[in-house]
Design a protein that fits this description.
A hairpin with a 2-residue loop joins strand 2 and strand 3. The chain contains 12 helices and 10 strands. Helix content is about 45%, strand content about 10%. The protein folds into 3 domains: about 120 residues, Butyryl-Coa Dehydrogenase, subunit A, domain 1; about 100 residues, Butyryl-CoA Dehydrogenase, subunit A, domain 2 (Beta Barrel); about 160 residues, Up-down Bundle (Butyryl-CoA Dehydrogenase, subunit A, domain 3). It is of the alpha+beta class and about 425 residues long.
Length: about 425
């Protein structure tokens, strides 16, 4: 498994692909079986942990690979080509590890980076379903004597079932939003694999319940201090997953065609592999995959510029962050559309036998459609249009929930983004 377009991206480090490529290939061997039988990739994520993947971004002097965000995105694309469920399962870890990396130097920061270098990963537990209001959370961190305790219920806790730590959005008694880090094996933590979506079925998503879980004070972080490009990075992981699906579509379609012996009498060549119309379809798929990968890498480079801007101060970070969100959202518009299109188009090159469950080729469209639904692209199209027309800065945080009534007015309003 190689980066087809690596020569066009100067920032990529081939040594990282050489390090992790064999693991990705090993993961790819069982992807169809896991997909068809809904087998969670516990073992495959263990391989990645043992290889050092949780520390791709950790500096070399602290035990990591010292990779850039572009390096990370490229590796996630290659991993998604092997199995797109796994990059999404690692999405919470990617963002929390970046948060610790962006934080000011401290002993606590060093402890976390050491944990990542030792293979520990973090899952996420941020979203609540039901009647929770916009910008609200029912999950709490409260004092119980000298102890802090976490209580709440989350959903869409993607990857937490595989994790060592869980990154939980909660609210303190004084109304301040915080992020609490608890070990998954702590007393009172229950994580379930009850995601019932038609795609991305092995991401380990579902519910997480926290019942009077003890939280160490140093593991309660202010939400306002969170890495400023966290949502752009969350979206980048999804873009990389989609770009990997695009590459897998080209790979699987070409392989099916190469191995075909039957042809239609209405075809345009002596074999499918020599049929110019079928060759054209594969060419279209390759072009779509090229565009999605290039868009994702460009978005990653924009996020890297935010990280690099930290040395220049807050104003430079804000300017770079606004620009990065514009690029990421612009990439989302293209990547979601092109990957879904490719997931359907591939069947134009194949006959009815390609629809058999043994091939599981439908997984590409189902997975792409599911990933694309996480952050509605119609909202991003509006945001990008407002940016180009009016210069309105894109939101760097957003919420989902029931509109909250403004006291005394009977009207609804959302807190400022």
């Amino acid at each position: 498994m190689t980066f087809v377009y690596r020569e066009n991206i100067e920032a990529l480090r081939p040594d990282l692909l050489e390090k992790y490529g064999p693991v990705f290939r090993r993961i790819a061997e069982g992807t169809v079986d896991r997909e068809r039988n809904r087998i969670l990739p516990h073992e495959q994520i263990k391989w990645l942990k043992e290889a050092g993947f949780p520390a791709v971004r950790v500096p070399r002097e602290q035990g990591g690979d010292g990779g850039s965000i572009v390096d990370l995105a490229a590796l996630l694309i290659a991993l998604a080509e092997a199995d797109p469920n796994i990059p999404q399962a690692l999405r919470g870890h990617v963002v929390f590890s970046e948060d610790r990396l962006f934080a000011e130097p401290s002993l606590d920061r060093d402890i976390w980076l050491k944990r990542f270098a030792e293979g520990e990963i973090a899952g996420n537990a941020w979203t609540e379903i039901g009647t929770v209001g916009l910008w609200q959370t029912a999950t709490s961190v409260k004092k119980d004597g000298d102890t802090l305790r976490l209580d709440g219920r989350k959903f869409y806790t993607t990857g937490s079932i595989f994790a060592d730590w869980i990154d939980v959005l909660a609210r303190r008694e004084d109304g301040v939003d915080v992020v609490a880090l608890v070990r998954k094996d702590s007393d009172g933590v229950t994580v379930s694999d009850d995601w019932d979506g038609f795609g991305q079925r092995t991401t380990g998503s579902g519910a997480a319940v926290f019942q009077s879980v003890v939280v160490e004070p140093q593991n309660v972080l202010l939400f306002d201090d969170r890495v400023p490009y966290q949502h752009a990075l969350y979206q980048l992981v999804l873009l990389a997953s989609l770009a990997g699906i695009g590459r897998a579509i080209v790979r699987d379609t070409a392989e099916q065609i190469r191995n075909r012996t039957r042809v239609y009498s209405t075809g345009s060549g002596p074999s499918d592999r020599q049929d110019p119309q079928i060759q054209q379809v594969v060419g279209q798929l390759a072009g779509l995959a090229y565009a999605t990968e290039a868009s994702t890498i460009r978005a990653a480079a924009a996020i890297q510029r935010v990280f690099d801007a930290k040395v220049a101060g807050p104003d430079a970070v804000k300017a770079a962050n606004d620009a990065a969100h514009v690029e990421v959202y612009s990439a989302q518009i293209i990547v979601t559309e092109f990957t879904q299109r490719a997931g359907s188009l591939l069947f134009n090159a194949l006959s009815a036998s390609a629809a058999r469950e043994t091939h599981a080729l439908d997984r590409h469209w189902r997975n792409a459609r599911t990933i694309s639904s996480h952050n509605p692209v119609i909202n991003k199209e509006r945001i990008i249009g407002d940016w180009h027309i009016n210069g309105t800065a894109p939101p760097i945080n957003w919420s989902i929930g029931v509109p909250v009534a403004t006291p005394g007015t009977g009207e609804t309003a959302a807190a400022a983004e």
